[in-house]
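Protein modeling request. Please complete all fields; requests missing the sequence field cannot be processed.
Requester role: graduate student
Desired output: 3D structure, C-alpha cell encoding
Chains: 1
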Amino acid sequence: MTTTKGLEGVVATQSAISSIIDDTLTYVGYDIDDLAVNASFEEVIYLLWHQRLPKEDELKELKKQLAANMSVPSEVLEHFKTYPIKEVHPMAALRTAISLLGLYDEKAEDMSDEANYEKAIKLQAKIATIVTTFARVRKGLNPVAPKVELGYAENFLYMLTGQEPEAIAVEAFDKALVLHADHELNASTFTARVCVATLSDMYSGVTAAIGALKGPLHGGANEQVMKMLMEIGSEDKVESYIREKLDNKEKIMGFGHRVYRKGDPRAKHLREMSKRLTELRGEEKWYNMSNKIEEIVTGEKDLPPNVDFYSASVYHSLGIDHDLFTPIFAVSRISGWIAHILEQYSNNRLIRPRADYIGPGMQKYVPIDKR
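Delivered output (371 residues):
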C-alpha cells in the first residue's frame, strides 16, 4: 500500500456525474462553459440526477415539484428562535436544521428509489427556505413564503429580501448556482458518499456534507475573500496589503486549487458577472480591487483565482450577508451531493480505506503502579 496525504491523486470510485480532465469541468459530459451560458439551475439539477438534460415537460414538472415542496415544517422554523442568534454561524444553523428536517419526513428511513427521489426533491427545495428564513429570523424579520410562479434562483432572492429581484440579479444568482452545483469528489461530496455507503439515510448524508463544507478550506473561502476585500477597503491599498501577505507567506483565499493547474474554468464567468454587477451598483471598487489582487497573486505566485474569488463580490453586490456565502454554496451543491448519494446507493460498497500506521511498535501493558 502507498500513502498519499489528503488522498491527493487517489481515484476512489467511478462516477458518471461530473469530471475534471485537463482543467475542463463537465457535468455528465457537458462543458461547464456551455452550461454556464445556456442552462438554468433547474436544468442542471435534472441533468445531475438523471444524467441527461430534461425535455420541456420534464423541466416544467421539476420546477413545479420544487416550488410545491419549499415549505418547511413549522417546528424546524420555530427551532431557529432557540439558537443563540448573535453567536451561531449560518452554516451551523443549516447543519442542524437539515438534520432536524429528517425527523419530520415519514419516509426518511425508506430506502426505495421512489422515496429517495422524493427526499431529493424535498431537500433541494427546502434548503433554500431554511437559509433565507434563518437569515431573516436572526434580524427579527418574518419569513417570506415562496411564490410558485417563480424559478428557483428568483424564489431564493425573493424569500431573502421580500422583494422580487431584478433580472440581472436573477441571472447572476442562477449562474452562480450552476457553477457551484457539482465538482467531482470534493471534500463534502466524498463525505456524503462515505456516510451513505453505510446505507445511512439521505438526510444524514447531506448533514455530513454540510459539516465538511463548513470549513474555510472548502466552502468558507468566498466569505474569507470578502473579509479580505473589506479589510483592504480601497483600490490604492491593494498593492501594499497583498505584498505584505506574500512577503509573510500568508495564504490568500480564493487562489489556487488542488485539482486545476492552469486555472479554475468557473472563475471567468463570475469575474464577468462581478464586473457587470459592481458597475450597476456603482461599487466598481470591489471588482477593481479583485482584479488588481488577481494580477499580483497570479503574476507573483502563478496561482489563478478559483470559483470562490469572484463569487464574493458577486454575492456582496446582490446585497447578501457575507456569512451567508457558504450556505448559498450548499444551496447549489446539494444538487451534486444528492446526485452522488443516489449514485452511491445504486452500486454501493462500504467505503473503508486503510491507514499507514506510524506509531510505536508492539508494546506491553505495564501496571499503573509501575509506570
